[in-house]
C-alpha cells in the first residue's frame, strides 16, 4: 500500500507522462494510476481498432497508440489505414528472415534468440508496438497452407524454439503476439470450423507451445484464432481464454483477435477478449467499410452496455489494464533501444539461420559439388528466380534485397563455371484465390527446353517446389493434394533421366510426394529462406557450409498415411454437424474423451461409418474431430509402425557421426558423439522418452530434449540430458492433471525419431 502511494502522488500531479517516469517495477503502479484517471469512454476505446493495424491510446493522458504489424518473418510493408491495400511507402523494405519452419529445422534455440532480437530491432525501428508472431500451431496435415509459418509437428520442439524468439523480440520493447490460439491447424473453413478434441490432446500437444510462450517466454500478447472450439469462436472462447489462458496460466497480457475473428459483443466482453482488430473483413478482401470502427463488437455496443450497468467494473478495468500494460511494456518502456533496419547484422543473421535450417535429405556423394574450371551448370526451375517473400498472405514481405537461388549460385560458381538458366515450368499468377490456368503447350515447351539443355550440362541444379500462391503455401486456403504442382514430377523425372548429376532443391513449408526419389542422387529441402536465400543455398551446395538442419515434421509416403486424412472428411477438413459419425459426435459443448478416441483409432476406426463428404462451408459450422488424439505426427507413425519417407528429426550432413553407448547415472543420461568424417559438422542429438507400461495409451516415445553439437573431424563430445519429472507425465483428462506413473521408462537417444542409436532404462518412483 505504502509503495503504491509513493508512486501515485508524484504521478497524479503530472499532466503528461515521460519515459523517464517509468521503469518495469512501476508498471503495475502506473497501470493503476492511469486507470484511476480514465473515463469509461477512454477505457472502452482502448479495446478496438482505429485503423487496419492500429488502436488508439489515451491521447488526453499522453498514452501512445498501439501499432501492430505482421510478422512473423520480418516487418511487413505498410498497409493502408482503412483497407488491406499496400500503402506504397518507399522506406519500408525489410530484411526477410527465413520462415519459421526453417527456424524450427535449425533445432538450435540460439538461432531463435538471434532471430527474435533481429526482427525485433526492425520492428522497433519501424515504430511497431506489436509484431504479429510467432505462429505455433502444430503440423497436423501437410495440406495446411500456413504450415510454413509454424514450427512443425512436435510441441516440445515448437516450445523450445518459440520461447527464445519471444524473449529476443521483446528485449527490444516490442511485444510478440503468439498466434493462432488455438486449434487453427488448417485454412479450409478456418473462419468457422468447430474443432473437437480431447483435453489430453489439447494439453499434451496443441496448447503446449502457447503455454511455454506465456509461462516461459513471458509473451505480452496472444492472438485468438478464427476457428471455433466447443461451438464458440476461439478469439472469445470462455474456456480457452478465461479458464485456461488467464486463470490456469496466469497470463497478464492482452488477447488480440485475429483480424476479423470477433463475432459477438457479449462473448467478446465476457470471454476475455481485450483488443478487437480487423472486423467486418474476411481477412483478405479490400472492401472494409471505411471508418466503421465504432461499429466493432467492442465499440459502441460495448460502451452502451457499460453505460447501462450491464458490464461489471472488474471486466471493464481488466481489459483496460491489459491494454495499458501492453503499452507501458512497449511504447512507454524506459531504456528501450531505437532499433535498426537492414543492418549487416540482420542480413548476416538471416543467412546464418537459413544455413542452419536447410535439410539435406539425400546424397549419394554428388554434394557438395566438385566443380572444375570451365564446367557448365544448368539451373532449372521457377523458384530459382521467383520472389518467395512476396505472397503467402499476411506474412508477405517486401525485402530490400532478395538474393535468388540463381543469383546466389552465379555469385558462388560463376567465376569458374558457366551458370545457365532454364525455367522448366511456370506457376502463373494468383490473385485473391484465383490461379491462372496455363496452357499445356507452355508446360511442354518449358520442360523440353530444360531437358534438352540438361543433357549438355556437367551439373543440373533444380530449384522448384511450392510457392506462395493460393492453394500452395499460402494463407486463406489449403493445398489441394500432396503432389508437387505445375507438372514438376514429370519435369524432375525427365531431368534425372537426362542428367544423372542433377541436384534437387525443393522449396516448401510442407511435405510432398516424391515419386522420383529413387532416381535422385541428391535432394535438399529448402524452406522459404528470405532475403539471403540464394547465398545460403549456395553455401550448402558448394560445401562452404556443412548442412545441419533436421526435419521439424515427418514426410509420409502418401496423404492418407496422415491420420487426419485416414479418417476421411471428419478428420479433415470437417463435415456438416449432422453427418458426424457416432460415437464420434461426442457431447456437444464438451471436450472429447481421449481414451475412447484412442480405442477407436487403435482398432483402425473399424465399424465407424466415416463421412466421405466434406462440408462445403455453406452452413458455416463444419465440425472436425482430431481423432488421432495424442498420436500426432511421428507419435502416430511410431505407434502403428507406419513407414515414412523421411522421419521427424531427420537430416544428413557432409560428415558422419558415431554415437557411443549411452549411460545413465541417477537421472542423468550421457552419450558421446564423434565426428568420424573429414569435415567439421554439427549433429542434433535427440532424446525421446517412452513409457511402455502405462494405464493409458502413450506414444512409443516423445521428444524431451535435444542439443545441436559442433564437432571438428575426429572430435568427440559428451552430451547429457537430465530427466525431469515433467518429461514423464501425461495429461490425465479424467482428473484434469499431469501424471507421472511409477515404473520403467525408456530414454531413446537418436539422430532422428527413427534412427535410434541407443536406449537406457530409468526406474521412476514417485
Ligand atoms: C492472419 C493473421 C495476421 C492478421 C493481420 C490474419 O488474416 O490470420 O495471422 O496477423 O491477418 O494481417
UniProtKB/TrEMBL annotation:
Keywords: Hydrolase, Signal. SMART domains: Fn3_like. This is Beta-glucosidase. It comes from the Bacteria. Residues 1-19 form the signal peptide. GO terms for molecular function: beta-glucosidase activity. Residues 683-753 form the Fibronectin type III-like domain. GO terms for biological process: carbohydrate metabolic process. It comes from Phocaeicola plebeius CAG:211. Belongs to the glycosyl hydrolase 3 family. The lineage of its organism: Bacteria, Pseudomonadati, Bacteroidota, Bacteroidia, Bacteroidales. The keyword Hydrolase applies. Coiled coil: none annotated.
